[in-house]
Design a protein that fits this description.
alpha/beta, seven-stranded mixed beta sheet, four-stranded antiparallel beta sheet
Amino acid sequence: MSDINLYCLSLKYYSLIDKLPKHIKPIGLGDYNYPEHWLSEKKGESIIELNKYYGQYTGIYWIWKNELKKKNYNDWVGTCEYRKLWLNNLYEKKLKFSAKSLFSDLLKKNNKIFSNCDAVLVQPINFKNENINQQFKKVHNVDLIKICMNFINDNEKSGFKDFLQKNKLSAPPLFITRVDIFNKFCENIFPILEKSYEYFKKNNLCNGYNLRLPACFMERYASYWFERHCKIKYLSHARLGSVFLSNRINKYINPIKIPFTLRMYPTIHKY
């Protein structure tokens, strides 16, 4: 492996992100004003106008169009989020770590997991009593099996239909892969994401809670794409709470050096 670079997709400025290791670069999404030292989809080639529908996928598009050309084809590039950070290990159960422990356990560039796989995803969510399509329908009131055939490529329809009937989902936009695969992934998903957006808008489905329905659909399709086209390994991630991320708290308390006493510890998720 030549190198690894992670991009932290953020919808707002959080000072805590500035304390992350140097190989994790923050990207500001949407119209929020970010510091000059942050990357921003306001600069370069972007689809920023679609952020309210595509969510973090506008950030992935920005990486594809503006950052990949700076990398070698066999470098590794990946994404995390301001609330979800990659860990260096795979945990079998949920845990709570102090902030200091969290930062010492963030994903390291020399992790051996990259030596024998094509992509790294977060460990799958297990829907105990329903499949992926049933869970999506319950949450979004949309039957993906019925509607996705309107915008999925013909050679993927059967495979994606079968995938939706499984009960485990490793939902991007958290993923890490080689530059060449990242490029193939984006070449495949963004035309489909655009078609899904047009279909959902035409049928008045992108509103209220479902404003980001195209992004929610793409989480399922992207998981399917990696499962079908790549040899996958999994890692855990930490989910950070809003209090832990608070700029005001981070201004007066250094959460890396001083453990919180107000139950603000980030939870380590096994998926």
